[in-house]
Amino acid sequence: MPLRHLALAMLAAALLLPNGGARADDLPRIRIGYVVTPPELQPILFAKPEIARHLGKTYSYEAVHFQATPAMITALASGDLDVVPFTFPTLAIAIQNAGIKDLRVFADEFQDGYGDNYSEHYLVLKDSGIAKVEDLKGKVVATNGIGSGVDMAMRTMLKKHGLEDPRDYSTVEVSFPNMKAVLLEGKVSLISEPVVFAYDPELQQKARLLFTEKEAMGHSQFAIWAARTPYIQKNRAALVDFMEDTLRALRWFYDPKNHDEAVGIVAQFAKQPPERLGWVFTKQDVYRAPDGIPDLKALQSNINTQKELGFLKEDLDISQYVDLSMVKEANQRLK
After folding, report:
1. Domain end among 171, 186, 217
2. What are phi and psi of 254, to 5 degrees?
3. Where are the beta strands (DSSP E) in the chain?
4. More confident residue, 5 or 182
5. Any bridge partners for residue 107, and if so which?
6. What is the domain range of residue 100?
């Protein structure tokens, strides 16, 4: 079962609201998944309660932890999750392979390799003798989950260099917090690290960058927020309020005058010293669209690559599975 984490502001939302307001458990629920923070912000999104003006009034909120996005497909199908932060391959698999045809993309989560911003690192040990991708032949590589966005980019890069799984290499699943350990212990030859772990001093000392996701796939609409149509129709007003609060929170996190406090919030959650996290909400971080609108052109390109790799049976026109009306309405409120 996934671990559950409540946003800090849920403490306030759980109380009886003034003037006869409903309790949080009587409000429309927004249960949203996440894998690792940062780059994902779900568990800390509303750490400044005054920013989330609608939280506890028109909706309740819960962030739910998973090891990788593919596991969220089952949670969505069973009704245990309302909003999914799917990476592009999980989105396509959910629609085409799992048959969740009523899924709709409604907001950006983050993008990889946008401009000069961070792109996922794929690392090998400096003393491993691995100088190029072809040197991974016969090796064991680590992924956080088969079919995840990180996994897809890795397979794309290895395929470009003539390597196929399982013919030329073996793949094991390892959670992100354990990636460094399995690399340093020599259990695997390649790991991927999201931005929160990539700047680890010991890792930078002993490992080196072999390639980035951008080198494998170009600019990626790496992760999006999506929900099923019946849920959107029933809770549309609450979702617009949620997106308004989300965009307002993003503005606060990215405001330079709030940087030290924002770093402190991330450090407390990630259990890392603040001095190691000065990169958050800068160019060294992943890119998050300030208006919350995903790059659908990049998303379609990513899904086309997924089809070329054989993970999809048919072409998928992602424009048929998009509803940006809520994030656009939220943007209009903030003008």
Report:
1. 217
2. -90, -5
3. 4-5, 29-34, 60-65, 103-112, 121-125, 140-143, 170-173, 191-193, 207-212, 220-228
4. 182
5. 225
6. 4-115+220-334
Tens digits of residue pLDDT in 41-88: 999 999 999 999 999 999 999 999 998 888 899 999 999 999 999 999
How many C-beta atoms lie closer than 10 Å to residue 191's C-beta? 30
Q: Do 159 and 110 reside in the same domain of the chain?
A: no
Contact status, residue 137 vs residue 163, Cβ threshold 8 Å = yes
Give how many domains the chain has, as a whole number: 2
273 & 303 share domain: yes
* Amino acid sitting at position 28: P
211 with 257, same domain?
no
Q: What radius of gyration, in Å, describes the C-alpha atoms of the chain?
A: 20
Mean pLDDT, the chain, whole residue set: 91
Q: DSSP letter for 256, please.
A: G
Contacts (Cβ under 8 Å, ≥6 apart) of 86: 69, 72, 94, 223, 224, 226
How far apart (Å, rounded) are the C-alpha atoms in residues 197 and 97?
A: 32
DSSP letter for each residue of 65-121: E-SSTTHHHHHHHHTS-SBB--BHHHHHHHHHTS--TTEEEEEEEEEES-TTS---E
State how far the Cα of 41 lies from the Cα of 38, in Å rounded to an integer: 6
SS3 for 29? strand
Q: What is the pTM of this model?
A: 0.86
CATH number, position 178 = 3.40.190.10
Q: Are 196 and 179 in contact (CB under 8 A)?
A: no
